[in-house]
């Protein structure tokens, strides 16, 4: 099988490039092809002629999306449509990466794949509208929603906590947002299996278990052996440009139905810290 990965230089993309073996994999960054350029996307997809396309490219700065709405929609929604049209043109299968931020966070039990989308911010809206367009364009495509991604090779929450924790005695972290941390290596492994199984429709893919950002930070500090004190604060105490869902835990039911189970986030965190050290 030949696979084409858009977003190969990102956090997830790098893990996909490392983890994917046994198939021919072509990885692209924005310097190779800007997904906003419909003609270039089409040319590139035709020349590589993959069986599967994984679309991990996105404008992922959640706060930046609020002040750059045009860019958010052009990359995350229209760029995704460009890739889907090119995939359709050559009969390639598509797996699109989406987000827990398509939900408004008002639920108090894990989100299932058929729960209504209702994003709070521009980033979530761009992903939500991309999902809708892709489902119309390529009804058999696979939409893998993930959340709170961390891994080596880029900015992520554990990396920030470790860097700040090395120099500050105390860190204030929000306690009223709940989600599922997800290790790029585990997500990459699940995506490879989904492609090999010809998965279709929406699937929720995160590490098992859930926590608040505060609990996640406590776990990072503890596991890294730091003495930094982590103090809980509310979202209101830390105003940011984009509103975030208070609860965006994704249910593993859709993934488990496909015979895939994910390790717990604490186990994933321990492996990430080892990988980061080495
Ligand atoms: N990070 C999270 O917490 C999170 C949570 C839920 C869902 N997701 C989704 O998971 C996927 C992977 O996220 P990530 O954290 O790995 O992203 P990331 O580290 O921010 O990487 C983004 C990737 O997209 C590429 N890209 C950006 N704009 C592009 C454009 N206009 N044309 C072509 N490529 C472009 C970047 O290329 P350059 O390196 O050349 O800029 C990079 O390879 C994304 O779809 C994201 O929305 C992420």
Structure at a glance:
The protein has helices at residues 11-19, 38-48, 62-67, 69-90, 122-137, 157-165, 184-196, 213-224, 253-257, 265-277, and strands spanning 2-6, 24-28, 52-55, 93-99, 142-146, 149-150, 170-174, 178-179, 182-183, 201-204, 211-212, 229-233. It is an alpha/beta fold.
Structure description:
Helices cover 42% and strands 17% of the residues. The chain contains ten helices and twelve strands. Strand 1 (2-6), helix 1 and strand 2 (24-28) form a beta-alpha-beta unit. It is globular. Bound molecules: NADP nicotinamide-adenine-dinucleotide phosphate.
- The percentage of residues in β strands lies in 15-25%
Q: How far from one another are the termini? A: 32 Å
Q: Using DSSP, what is the number of strands? A: 12
CATH architecture: 3-Layer(aba) Sandwich
Residue ranges: pLDDT <50 for 5 or more in a row?
none
Helix content: 40-55%
Q: Round the Cα radius of gyration to an integer and report it.
A: 18 Å
- Strand sequence of the main sheet, in spatial order? 2-1-3-4-5-10
